[in-house]
UniProtKB/TrEMBL annotation:
Molecular-function annotations in GO: metal ion binding; protein serine/threonine phosphatase activity
Required co-factors: Mn(2+)
Intervals holding TPR repeats: 92-125
Protein name: protein-serine/threonine phosphatase
Positions of the catalytic residues: H299
Keyword Hydrolase among record annotations: yes
Keywords: Hydrolase, Manganese, Metal-binding, Repeat, TPR repeat
Domain Serine/threonine specific protein phosphatases: 199-475
UniProt cross-references to InterPro entries, sorted A to Z: Calcineurin-like_PHP, Metallo-depent_PP-like, PP5_C, PPP_dom, PPP_phosphatase, Ser/Thr-sp_prot-phosphatase, TPR-like_helical_dom_sf, TPR_rpt
Length: 493
């Protein structure tokens, strides 16, 4: 009798877990991914605590893996998909989900192996074959590019001949004044972009070359001094959402000598107006070099740009040559800014080791693609966590750091707090770690799906107390996010 009761109890647990999974599926379908993850996790915990498991237990992990991918927690997605495969090596969705995570992390060869497993099992499946074919093309393309690359060749910037680029008589867009950016040029550029016009390639190349020349002379850690009566604005990720960028300027004023800004990385990718965003930002950088600042984000890199749209957008609107020039420019973007030596601003977060100083940051060699570990990697990819200490990154790159790590870092470097971006927040910002770690994210309704607000921070020099302004997304022309992304992204998104 006791055995029967125990069996009934187990069956009840599994039935309850199955209902939790179905509830999670409903949240996932409604794009409430955080809620979906919560319900999948509860269902998994219920099953893990029971000695009997549902026959489809692998699906619990595969489903949560997909939800993690939707929140860009690709490290978690990879771990869940791998667990699903371990539970059932014949469960093909596990391979699908793991390939998705690998692709998102730029690990294309690993993704190809998983797609190959699916194709071998389902040779007549068009979807599986399509994903395998596209991934295989990408792997071969990268191998080809590596094979033909020759060291010690001239950089793209050294080969560009602007003088040979004639401006056609019917061009009606903005023109540089004797090769220089002016306020009139910027206002005309904003108007042109708002109306979906295009900047002539001669002016576009000139801006890129001038920005590169300026950034080459800048340190990896830029110190900013704000006067006691001066307002300073910090913005987070923009991600190619140009019309939301213009809304920031409408709410807070255009950049000027008396209205300084810092944009904290991830200017491009995902949103399909990334070209418009970056030329507007670079234009203001040239116009107000000592009052307009830009930090590098993890999406200012070749792998991210290749996957999430910026490379494709530049090729569509300009050329392959310009896409390669952008890579050279991004390599010179500073990694961090320190305001009045009291507030450190960087895109991702803190470090996988203790005792990192501002001097260590200053000494980072930045003219390269982001490495997969080390100080530069952490600054671009890491995220805060509620628990003390450190843990592996939910993204699969960088680290997660707790309140004790933040406290130790700010005390060691005599800082008040840090500002970082990199993560979607429902209200556009979040104060964590006893308000010593602030996140700001400036792309509202991220990718037209997340429903989040955007935010920016304003500081006053005399106290540096953060003030948060939030806003909702504004309408934009009918061009979908990820319009220019790698075809595989659109297949698994």
């Amino acid at each position: 009798m006791n055995g029967e009761c125990k069996l009934d109890y187990r069956e009840a647990d599994i039935t309850h877990a199955e209902r939790m999974k179905e509830e999670a599926n409903v949240h996932f379908s409604a794009k409430r991914y955080a809620d979906a993850i919560d319900y999948y996790s509860k269902a998994i915990a219920m099953c893990e605590s029971s000695s009997t498991k549902p026959h489809n237990f692998a699906a619990y992990y595969a489903n949560r893996s997909f939800a993690h991918s939707k929140t860009e927690a690709y490290g978690y997605a990879l771990a869940d998909a791998t667990k699903a495969i371990q539970l059932d090596p014949k469960y093909l969705k596990g391979y699908y989900r793991r390939a998705t995570a690998y692709m998102s992390l730029g690990k294309f060869k690993e993704a190809l192996k998983d797609y190959e497993v699916v194709v071998k099992a389902l040779p007549s499946d068009k979807d599986a074959k399509g994903k395998y074919t596209e991934c295989n093309k990408l792997v071969k393309r990268l191998a080809f590019e590596k094979a033909i690359s020759v060291e010690d060749t001239k950089s793209v910037s050294e080969q560009i001949d602007i003088e040979s680029m004639n401006i056609e008589n019917d061009y009606s867009g903005p023109c540089l004044n004797d090769g220089k950016v002016t306020l009139e040029f910027m206002k005309e550029l904003i108007k042109t972009y708002r109306e979906q016009g295009k900047l002539h390639k001669r002016h576009a190349y000139k801006i890129l070359l001038d920005v590169k020349k300026y950034l080459e002379k800048q340190p990896t850690l830029v110190h900013i001094n704000i006067k006691s009566d001066e307002k300073f604005t910090v913005c987070g990720d923009i991600h190619g959402q140009y019309y939301d960028l213009l809304n920031i300027f409408e709410l807070n004023g255009l950049p000027s000598d008396t209205n300084p800004y810092l944009f904290n990385g991830d200017f491009v990718d995902r949103g399909s107006f990334s070209v418009e965003c970056i030329f507007t930002l670079f234009g203001f950088k040239l116009l107000f070099p000592d009052k307009f600042f830009m930090s590098r984000g993890n999406h200012e890199s070749v792998t991210m740009n290749r996957m999430y749209g910026f490379e494709g957008e530049v090729k569509s609107k300009y050329s392959v040559e310009m896409a390669n020039l952008f890579t050279e420019v991004y390599n010179w973007l500073p990694l961090a800014h320190c305001i009045n030596r009291r507030v450190l601003v960087m895109h991702g977060g803190l470090f996988s080791k203790d005792n990192v100083t501002l001097k260590d940051i200053e000494n980072i060699y930045r003219n390269r693609q982001p490495p997969e570990e080390g100080l530069m990697c952490d600054m671009l990819w890491s995220d805060p966590q509620d628990a003390p200490g450190r843990s592996p990154s939910k993204r699969g790159v960088g680290v997660q750091f707790g309140p004790d790590v933040t406290k130790t870092f700010v005390e060691l470097n005599n800082l008040d707090y840090i500002i970082r971006s990199h993560e979607v927040k429902a209200n556009g910002y979040e104060e964590a770690h006893d308000s010593k770690c602030i996140t700001v994210f400036s792309a509202p309704n991220y990718c037209d799906t997340m429903g989040n607000k955007g935010a920016f921070i304003t500081l006053e020099g005399h106290c540096l107390k953060p003030k948060f302004t939030t806003y909702t997304a504004v309408p934009h022309p009918p061009v979908k996010p990820l319009m220019y992304a790698n075809s595989l992204v659109n297949l698994f998104c």
